[in-house]
Design brief:
8 helices, HMG_CoA_Rdtase, transmembrane helix, 4-stranded mixed β-sheet, alpha+beta, membrane
Length: 197
C-alpha cells in the first residue's frame, strides 16, 4: 500500500521518516537482536489470532501463520509511505474444524468465504486464499497503526485513555509494614543499638 504523506501526518499523526525509522529499529534490528525467527513485525500474531478465533481456525496454527516481515519504505520520491507485509505461511480453511460454529460461520459469511469455493470458474481453495488475503490486509492495517503510534509516542497514552481503567495501586510489602507499625506505635521498636539477651 502507498500512503500519501498528508494521510501519514493528518490521520496517523506521524511522519514518513519517523515511521520508516521506527520500523527499522523495532521490527528489523530489534527482532534480529532478539533472535526472532519469522517475527520481523510489530504484532502480526495479535491480528492473526483474533481473526483465527473469529473464523473458526485452529489457533495452534498461529505460530506458522504469524510469520511476517513488515517493510516500510519511501515512495513517490519521499512524499509517500510504502508499506507491505509478507506472510508466506498463512494456514487457513473455510470448511471443517470450527468453521461450522454459529458465530464463526457468521464471520465467514460476512467475508463471503464460508464453505467450499463455488461458481463456474472457482478452484479448490479459492475461499481459503481469499481468507488468507483478508488476514494479510488486516495485519497490514494493524502494523500501520501500531508503527504510527510507536513513532509518535502515542502508544502508552492511547492505552491509558482507551484501554485501561483507573485503579488504585496495590499496597507494597513496605506499605503494609509501615501501616502495622503505625497501629502499634506504643510498642517499642528495636533500635540499631538494641542488644539481645
Amino acid at each position: 500500500a502507498i500512503i500519501p504523506d498528508k494521510i501519514v501526518k493528518n490521520v496517523l499523526k506521524s511522519s514518513v521518516h519517523d515511521m520508516i525509522e521506527t520500523n527499522k529499529q523495532k521490527n528489523h534490528i530489534g527482532s534480529a537482536m532478539a533472535g526472532s525467527i519469522g517475527g520481523f513485525n510489530a504484532h502480526a500474531a495479535n491480528i492473526v489470532t483474533a481473526v483465527f478465533l473469529a473464523t473458526g481456525q485452529d489457533p495452534a496454527q498461529n505460530v506458522e501463520s504469524s510469520n511476517c516481515i513488515t517493510i516500510l519504505e519511501y515512495a513517490d520520491d519521499g512524499k509517500s509511505l510504502y508499506i507491505s507485509v509478507t506472510m508466506p505461511s498463512i494456514e487457513v480453511g473455510t470448511v471443517g474444524g470450527g468453521t461450522h460454529l454459529p458465530a464463526q460461520a457468521a464471520c465467514l459469511d460476512i467475508l463471503d468465504v464460508r464453505g467450499a469455493s463455488k461458481g463456474p470458474h472457482s478452484q479448490p481453495g479459492d475461499n481459503a486464499r481469499k481468507l488468507a488475503q483478508v488476514i494479510g490486509a488486516a495485519v497490514l492495517a494493524g502494523e500501520l497503526s501500531l508503527i504510527a503510534a510507536l513513532a509518535a509516542n502515542h502508544l502508552v497514552r492511547s492505552h491509558m485513555q482507551h484501554n485501561r481503567k483507573p485503579t488504585e495501586s496495590a499496597p507494597t510489602s513496605m506499605d503494609v509494614q509501615v501501616s502495622m507499625l503505625r497501629k502499634n506505635e506504643s510498642t517499642p521498636l528495636l533500635s540499631a543499638h538494641s542488644t539481645s539477651k
